[in-house]
Amino acid sequence: MKSIYLLLLSLILQACTMGNGEEDGRQTSTENISFDEYKQVFVEELWKVNPSWASYEGYHAYDSILLIPNEDTRVLQMSFADTVLMNLEKFDFDKLSENNKTDFYLIENYARSSLFYLSEFKSWEWNPASYNLGGNFFQVLDYTDSPLYERLSNINLKLMNVPEYYIQAKLNIDKPTKEHTELAIEQITGSLSIFQNNIVDSLDKAGSCGDLKIALQKNLNNAVTAIQDYLGWLENDVLPGLDSTNSRDFRIGEEMYNRKFSFDLQSMYSPKEIYKKAIDEKAAVLDSMYAIADSLWPKYFGILKKPELDKEKMISMIIDTISNQHVHPDSFVTAIRQQIPELIKFVETHNLLSMQDKKLEVRETPKYMRGVAGASISAPGPYDKNAATYYNVTPLDDYSEESAESYLKEYNNYMLQILNIHEAVPGHYTQLIYSNQSPSIIKSILGNGAMIEGWAVYAERMMLEEGYGNNQLELWLMYYKWNLRTICNTILDYGIHVKGMNREEAMDLLIRQAFQQEAEAEAKWRRARLSQVQLCSYFTGYYEIMELRKEIQKQMENDFDLREFHEEFLSYGSAPVKYIRQLMLQSDSNS
Ligand code: ZN
After folding, report:
1. Gap between the Cα atoms of 8 and 1, Å rounded
2. Ligand 1 centre and the CA of 456: distance in Å?
3. Alpha carbon of 62 to ligand 1 centroid (Å)
């Protein structure tokens, strides 16, 4: 009797667990289906409250809309963020797939950070350069998939709001920083050419389009007048009155810095921890550089006496000499093109990760994109997935002999290899291929910059550690110089905004202690005053990936496999490293 009872009970229990199991499985997928649906709704709504951002991402349904930056718009954007947070609460997080879990975190962070930016950071009050419409109008004009007439109609509607936009901008500005006011004058003056040249040229090309042409010409004139009025106001009324008592300090201070850092980088470390780590790392890198310079001394300087008491001087003499080994200006693009297959071959023969999609076209940077970086990756946006990926390299045709020489000394034979690892293989380009394999519109819009840059910086170190370049000392020395730039970006950014670092200290850090050219250091000092936190993303992501690798190596001991680590890490897409870490540690303890 007892045994029958037990048997029955166990059958019932079994049935229960089976039932639950089935139901769980069904719920899990239902939960994911409804979360996938929600993501679509979220993105649609996101574009409605941020139409300009939509145009940048290649979503052109709201190209005709220009929101006035007033209180109503901010309330609209904040209530959208509140609604998003409420909607997220409806999902059972544990039942989501790994891809959806990371998307969940990214959406949540978007909502919280958008509330932070609108109600606490408030750069709409103190950054006059945030009212620059040039790029936005260019995105609409440049969308060549749409007929010119349609683009011009959208531009016409958008232009109608420009005068009110700038009236509101003037009302918003309150105690701006001197630096951002100067930036605004420079950038918005530059943007005028989009209105006065690009749009006008397109209008000429459009031929006869009757009433549209007349209306557009009138709205364009009004818009240009409004922009010029804003510029005149900044130049004549705002800037002359800005001194230390009534302008805002460009340094955002520790409390605000911590908040911004947590939203922008989503790191598991605090800014203070990252700063401290960067200081330690800088000392370690300098020691390694000194040891290399010491070994290379006889090769380059023979019996010349070493400046032994001045480590930096000795390192910089060696760097300067090695930098003379560079390609001819005419073969810069060719040199890069030839190197990509070698990098792919190294990654494959050393079993570092699989490179299924090898297509990467190295091209000369299109003329309209030139001017900023010498090399960059152009990846298709989320709405243009089938477009090709390019590695853009700017040829040195337009450089004077002197500046070409200076540029080539920086990107000498050794540094060029590090650059190609970072930008292309196995850096940005490879990461992109992996993230496209688990396509997530959320990750392509809200992807984590620290993970993306951190991976490229990690790739440089990993390649050299695995023997790329046969441990040639010159290559290691140049790698360290490059790595020091990443480390010093962090020290500089935190130093300026939190610790009050001044110009003199910044220049000493970059030029004497990190071997940078004066022009490069000047540009960095400027960038660090105009932005906050972004300069930390490279080192933060790199450090997090290195720590994660150590942790997994320790956990798996002899079973650790570098290729598996790389492929699994990249399979989560451009999510913050701290969430990838959670998922990887979980899956390793399960397996
Ligand atoms: Zn990069």
Report:
1. 10
2. 6
3. 30
Q: pLDDT tens across 302-332, in order? A: 999 999 789 999 999 999 999 999 999 999 9
> What does the alpha-carbon distance between residue 347 and residue 357 come to, in Å, rounded to a whole number?
13
The sheet with strand 361-364 has its strands ordered as 361-364, 390-393, 375-378
CA dist list (Å): 15 to 6, 7, 121, 205, 341 = 14, 12, 56, 74, 58
Sort strands 361-364 and 390-393 into parallel, antiparallel or unpaired: parallel
- Residue 154 in contact with residue 216, Cβ under 8 Å? no
List, in sequence order, every beta strand (DSSP E) within 424-467: none
Question: Can you tell me whether residue 30 is helix, strand or coil?
Answer: helix
β-sheet bridge partners, residue 378: 390
**What are the backbone angles phi and psi of residue 175, rounded to the nearest 5°?**
50, 65
112 pairs with which residues across the strands?
none
Q: How confident is the model at residue 371 (pLDDT cuts 50, 70, 90)?
A: low
Distances, alpha carbon 37 to alpha carbons 25, 31, 42, 61, 173, in Å? 18, 10, 9, 20, 40
Q: State the distance from the centre of ligand 1 to the C-alpha of 378, rounded, in angstroms.
A: 12
Distance 542 CA to ligand 1 centre (A): 11
Q: Strand, helix or coil at 81?
A: helix
Contact by Cβ (8 Å): 126, 247: no
The answer to whether the bond into 380 is cis (omega within 30° of 0) is no
The answer to whether 179 and 503 are in contact (CB under 8 A) is no
Q: Torsion angle, CA of 247/248/249/255, rounded to 10 degrees?
A: 160
Alpha helices (H) along 194-310:
199-205, 210-232, 253-265, 271-301
Contact 486, 539 (CB under 8 A): yes
Which residue shows structure tokens 């001087």? 313
Distance 468 CA to ligand 1 centre (A): 20
**Helical (H) or strand (E) element with 506:** helix 503-507
At residue 15, does pLDDT exceed 90?
no
Q: Which pTM does this prediction carry?
A: 0.90
**SS3 at position 498:** coil
